[in-house]
């Protein structure tokens, strides 16, 4: 951010617009250069031996990746940020950096499924004990803490079913026991929730989603507080999981409009979720910003807003009804990602749940509300609900 702007006092959209680069550093150009780099040359042998210059090799950072990471630091209030090739890499790099054989790690049971797959396969194979906890555990997570518990990995709201967690209560237990807390904050982004402000040590984002915003980039960021930054940075360098410069540039460009896009996503999603609460073909709407949601009080206490993704439970039926709903849609695309400009829908598979498994009245459909007109999206949903009813 240019001199004269203090990220701590400016508004979120000002930070999104100006953080990460100073045009005066690049001859006045508004956007930083896209630096494609592997080899970096040194002026002499001693400088090369001491690595006594800002950039030494492409995997250790370039002006492009630094611009993105500086912008994220300004949003998160973090001591440092790394940019990695995907949202899943943003999950795996900190876990590999902070866990060792013989350690015990707690994961919320409503976690993003690829995170669970990594924990159950690779972490288990490397000798890490993996255990899942209920999203409503709060301070009672202390009952699961062992002497070898090193990490609590959480995500709020929960993936696909949007359960809220009492993060400050979990953080207090973790701090008292010397445990590192990590939080996947992809749903809210730093615009609506800042994990480090609530005591979390490491904040994780699939920047593929809202930061990029256009369904064409894979990238993740991981931001750490001062106590965890060096270990995260060392793990990142050891793994060599650096983001490509063109992708970093695209995400930085996406950040500039993320605030205004999120305002639209939020408003449209809330309007649609509210309308569906009273629909005869909808048994339940899983959106934490609705007063009917069991975790609404926590959301209202801790969050500044809500993004554009939530789920609905159809009134009875199973896979046949879910497929009929999806196949009748013409505006909503059928796709697994979210956070882009277009609306998406998917039939949620909850078969991986263990300690938080529950029965729903019908199939769960996750809706990503894009930037289209609400009236058109509602008409599309009505087509889907009518098809499900007739299935």
From TrEMBL:
Its EC number is 4.4.1.8. Its cofactor is pyridoxal 5'-phosphate. Pfam families: Cys_Met_Meta_PP (PF01053). It catalyses: L,L-cystathionine + H2O = L-homocysteine + pyruvate + NH4(+). Keywords: Lyase, Pyridoxal phosphate. One of its GO terms (molecular function) is cysteine-S-conjugate beta-lyase activity. Residues 10-22 have a biased composition (Polar residues). One of its GO terms (biological process) is transsulfuration. It comes from the Bacteria. InterPro entries: Cys/Met-Metab_PyrdxlP-dep_enz, Cys_b_lyase_bac, PyrdxlP-dep_Trfase, PyrdxlP-dep_Trfase_major, PyrdxlP-dep_Trfase_small. Residues 1-28 are annotated as: Disordered. The modification N6-(pyridoxal phosphate)lysine is found at residue 209. Transmembrane segments: none annotated. Belongs to the trans-sulfuration enzymes family. This is Cystathionine beta-lyase.
């Amino acid at each position: 951010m240019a001199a004269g702007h203090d990220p701590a006092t400016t508004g979120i959209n000002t930070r999104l617009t100006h953080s990460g680069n100073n045009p005066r550093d690049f001859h006045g150009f508004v956007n930083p250069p896209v630096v494609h780099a592997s080899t970096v040359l040194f002026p002499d042998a001693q400088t090369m031996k001491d690595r006594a210059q800002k950039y030494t090799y492409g995997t250790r950072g370039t002006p492009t990746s630094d611009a993105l990471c500086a912008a994220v630091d300004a949003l998160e209030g973090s001591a440092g940020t790394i940019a990695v090739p995907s949202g899943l890499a943003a999950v795996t790099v900190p876990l590999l950096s902070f866990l060792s054989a013989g350690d015990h790690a707690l994961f919320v049971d409503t976690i993003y499924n690829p995170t669970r797959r990594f924990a159950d396969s690779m972490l288990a194979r490397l000798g890490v004990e993996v255990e899942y906890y209920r999203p409503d555990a709060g301070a009672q997570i202390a009952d699961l803490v062992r002497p070898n518990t090193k990490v609590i990995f959480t995500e709020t709201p929960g993936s696909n079913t949007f359960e809220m967690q009492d993060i400050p209560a979990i953080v207090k237990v973790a701090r008292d026991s010397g445990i590192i807390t990590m939080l996947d904050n992809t749903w809210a982004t730093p615009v609506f929730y800042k994990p480090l402000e609530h005591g979390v040590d490491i904040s994780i984002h699939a920047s593929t989603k809202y930061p990029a915003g256009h369904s064409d980039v894979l990238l993740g960021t991981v931001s750490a507080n001062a106590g965890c930054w060096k270990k995260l940075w060392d793990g990142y360098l050891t793994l060599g999981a650096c983001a490509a410069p063109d992708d970093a540039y695209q995400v930085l460009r996406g950040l500039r409009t993320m605030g205004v896009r999120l305002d639209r996503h939020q408003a449209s999603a809330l309007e649609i979720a509210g309308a569906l609460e009273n629909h005869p073909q909808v048994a339940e709407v899983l959106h934490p910003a609705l007063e009917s949601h069991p975790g609404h009080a926590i959301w209202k206490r801790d969050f500044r807003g809500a993004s554009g993704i939530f789920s609905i439970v159809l009134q009875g039926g199973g896979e046949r009804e879910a497929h009929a709903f999806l196949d009748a849609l013409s505006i909503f695309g059928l796709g697994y990602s979210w956070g882009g400009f277009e609306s998406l829908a998917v039939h949620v598979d909850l078969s991986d749940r263990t300690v938080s498994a529950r029965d729903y009245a019908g199939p769960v459909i996750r809706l990503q509300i894009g930037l289209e007109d609400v009236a058109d999206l509602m008409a599309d949903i009505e087509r889907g609900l009518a098809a499900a009813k007739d299935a």
